[in-house]
Each structure stands twice: as structure tokens, then as C-alpha cells.
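Researcher: Here's the sequence for the chain we discussed earlier.
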Amino acid sequence: MILRFKLIIFLFATAIPSFCQAQPGMQIAEQDAEASANSFHREYLEQYVGFPLAEDSRLELYDTIVNWLGTPYRFAGNCDKGIDCSGLVHLLCSRVYGFNPGARNSGELYQRVEKIDPDDLREGDLLFFRIYKRRISHVAMYLGNGKFVHSSTSRGVIISDLNEAYYRKHFAGAGRFQSSLTGIPDTD
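Model: Thanks. This is the structure I predict for it:
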């Protein structure tokens, strides 16, 4: 009886570790579940922002944007009670990309970026506008598909299209932070 009991304990003890080890099928199932969750998350964000996201889009960027959409404009603001255009860009750079752009207004930001051709825009690049005559007076972050996020004086944080006549008229240029400043590797 004792021998039979020891044999049962032995068989049980040796079977548990092999049963509990991750089986190849289990890893695939976990990967499928994660891919499914990411796909659902992406679809939710696409519906919320109103346009398809690129496969390599940083979902954290869109999560942050979704939380700030509708926040009212406030000159020199940088909180949920009100934020201005450069405050929004600063917030996105620090929270999503993990660096401090080192400037707090659109003109200073324009001086700190490497100028790029608008045909070479990628997600996270900055767009600059001359709303008031000759000086850079507005900044936004490019999202892709001609869309950008910014804090407008009339509607607060919104997503707009670069092809709208108003923005085409006032567009002054585009820029990208150098990888030496951000630590983000250049993908070109």
C-alpha cells in the first residue's frame, strides 16, 4: 500500500511540471490573443480618430490624443483645463516619445527641428504654420494620411487635415527632431 502510494505521488509529481510547462500551442494561443487585442485596440482608435492607422503607428500616441481631444485652448496652458499648441506638442513628445523638446513655443520649436520636405512626413513630425503674417505662430504633430493633431484657438485639441484650404494657406513647413536630440533612431 505504501509502495503504491509512493508510486502515485511520484507519477503525479513528474506529470505536473510537464503539464505546467508552456506548450508550443499555448504560446501560439497567447500570441494570437495578444494580436487580437492589439487589432481590437487599433480598430477602436481608428473609429475614434476617424482614419486608418498605419501598421507601425504608435498606439500610445493615439491613446494620449484620445484623452486630450476636446481639451480647450488656453494660451501657455499645459493641463487638462486648457492647453496651447506648443504645450500639446511638448506633452506628446515627452509622454509618447520620451524626450523633452527643449522649447515651449512654436517659433522655438521651429528653430530646433531639422526641416524636412512635406512629401517625407511621417508620424510624429511637426507641422508649422504662419497664422499671423510672417512669424511661425502655430505648431501641430503629423499623424499620417494628411492628418495632424493640434490645439486650435476656437475648438481646442482636434484632428485636422493638412489638405484643408485654411491650413494649406498658412502652412510654413515641416520638421523632425534629430535622433541625437531624442535618442529615437532615424528609420531612413
